[in-house]
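Section 5: illustrative case.
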């Protein structure tokens, strides 16, 4: 009997076109506490856990702040992001990919560095069933690039992490996949370049979920209806 296979998806930038809303939300949060940074610097940290992003952005400004201010920055980020949440959309092919996997009885779930509060709208857009054991930052001790989110997601699905395929848009996703000991696949829809994703451990890189859907055979998923 072959071991079960499963997909572990990142959310922001991988299934949902929300990276730039997060960038703007972090910028607004930082400006609120007098810590201005260019958007491109913030973008390079998207995909990490909120706590690590806050710490990294503090380092970029050269200003050390208290734990209380760091927590306030994270809360301000959430508030600002939720103001823009109506602007986000599923990425091309995201719903179709998840639907196909479900129809083919291929296990999948989402493991995101976002809190459940920030992720809920995106999960509704993707029509994610409450039966899917989504893992958010609230559920684990450490976010990406630590492997906790993916290890927990595999455990929730009852699949050995070695038989999982992690799909993510950032170097932090792929570093976490490598540390978890599983296959990483990158997508360009979060703004990182192909070379960066490959260097971080991506086995293959696709444009977006729609592109991955067309090439599932390249990651070992055989679906007869997709074979010409």
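Designed sequence:
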């Amino acid at each position: 009997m072959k071991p079960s296979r499963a997909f572990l998806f990142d959310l922001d930038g991988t299934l949902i076109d929300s990276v730039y809303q997060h960038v703007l939300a972090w910028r607004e949060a930082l400006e609120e506490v007098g810590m201005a940074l260019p958007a491109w610097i913030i973008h390079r940290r998207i995909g990490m856990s909120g706590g690590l992003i806050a710490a990294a952005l503090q380092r970029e400004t050269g200003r050390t702040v208290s734990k209380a201010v760091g927590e306030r920055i994270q809360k301000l980020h959430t508030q600002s992001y939720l103001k823009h949440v109506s602007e986000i959309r599923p990425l091309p092919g995201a719903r179709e990919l998840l639907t196909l996997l479900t129809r083919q009885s291929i296990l999948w779930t989402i493991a995101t560095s976002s809190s459940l509060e920030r992720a809920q709208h995106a999960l509704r857009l993707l029509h994610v069933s409450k039966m899917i054991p989504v893992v958010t930052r609230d559920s684990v001790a450490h976010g990406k690039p630590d492997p906790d989110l993916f290890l927990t997601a595999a455990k929730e699905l009852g699949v050995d992490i070695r038989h999982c395929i992690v799909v993510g848009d950032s170097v932090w996703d792929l570093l976490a996949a490598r540390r978890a000991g599983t296959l990483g696949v990158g997508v360009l829809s979060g703004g990182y370049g192909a070379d960066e994703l490959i260097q971080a451990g991506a086995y293959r890189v696709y444009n977006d979920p729609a592109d991955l859907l067309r090439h599932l055979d390249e990651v070992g998923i055989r679906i007869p209806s997709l074979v010409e």
